Automatic annotation (TrEMBL):
One of its GO terms (molecular function) is pyridoxal phosphate binding. Belongs to the pyridoxal phosphate-binding protein YggS/PROSC family. It comes from the Bacteria. HAMAP family: PLP_homeostasis. Pfam families: Ala_racemase_N. The keyword Iron does not apply. Keywords: Pyridoxal phosphate. Residues 2-219 form the Alanine racemase N-terminal domain. It comes from Hyunsoonleella pacifica. The modification N6-(pyridoxal phosphate)lysine is found at K25. This is Pyridoxal phosphate homeostasis protein. Its cofactor is pyridoxal 5'-phosphate. Pyridoxal 5'-phosphate (PLP)-binding protein, which is involved in PLP homeostasis.
Length: 224
């Protein structure tokens, strides 16, 4: 199946209110261009340098999403163009994003990454920590970020019941935070679901899915 066909099939199977982020990490510009020419203009990358290089080479109306774990010292390289940062997992990181966004006179949209998986390796913060951040005076001083929702990654398992529990948990956290809206916290997005579980994620309330291999084929990390 071609990239175009894969995209058409996925688009046809998801509701209109769900945003498809095409995860192009490790894939060459030629593959991204094929998706772009098929009408896909939202792409996700998990490494800043790779995203910066692709941004330079690709049409400028693409929305670039940073979906990976983010180091504070890398924020500056993408602050001029990044559309949405999915993996905000600390207040320190949020403050750095705010600082870099300010330099470019921008407001950068972000999602809090909530730890929903059981694996120790998955990043994210707890609902309690998010609640604490939202309550702090310092948060209200961040004028150059806007938290538009939450992101989560389920445990890598074939156990659908467990995945569903984790997605439901994220949806519950989202619902419980909705009433906490401020000028820089406007929750409307739940980013959850990947190639293997996006249909389940949508049934649990996802509004944004991050799909890579089902569009571009399997990734080969050895040859990049
Ligand atoms: C790689 C990645 C995806 C996409 O995974 P697929 O299984 O290829 O769809 C989604 N989200 C994050 C955070 C990723 O790193």
């Amino acid at each position: 199946m071609s990239i175009k066909n894969n995209l058409q099939n996925i688009k046809a199977s998801i509701p209109n209110h769900v945003t498809l982020v095409a995860v192009s990490k490790t894939k060459p510009v030629s593959a991204i261009l094929e998706a772009y020419n098929a009408g896909q203009h939202v792409f996700g990358e998990n490494k800043v340098q790779e995203m910066v290089e692709k941004h330079e080479q690709m049409p400028k109306d693409i929305e670039w999403h940073m979906i990976g774990h983010l180091q504070r010292n890398k924020v500056k390289y993408m602050a001029s163009f990044v559309h949405l940062i999915h993996g905000v997992d600390s207040f320190k990181l949020l403050k750095e994003i705010n600082k870099q966004a300010k330099k470019h006179d921008r407001v950068i949209d972000c999602l809090f990454q909530i730890k929903i998986a059981q694996e120790v390796s998955k990043f994210g913060i707890s609902a309690q920590e998010v609640s604490k951040i939202l309550s702090s005076q310092e948060f209200l001083e961040l004028k150059n970020i806007n938290i538009t929702g939450l992101m989560g990654m389920a445990t890598l398992t074939n156990d659908e019941t467990q995945i569903k529990q984790e997605f439901n948990y994220l949806k519950n956290v989202f619902d419980s935070l909705k009433s906490r809206e401020t000028f820089n916290f406007k929750p409307e997005t739940i980013s959850m679901g990947m190639s293997g579980d996006y249909k389940l994620a949508i049934s649990c309330g996802s509004t944004m899915i991050r799909v890579g291999s089902s569009i571009f084929g399997a990734r080969n990390y050895n040859i990049g």
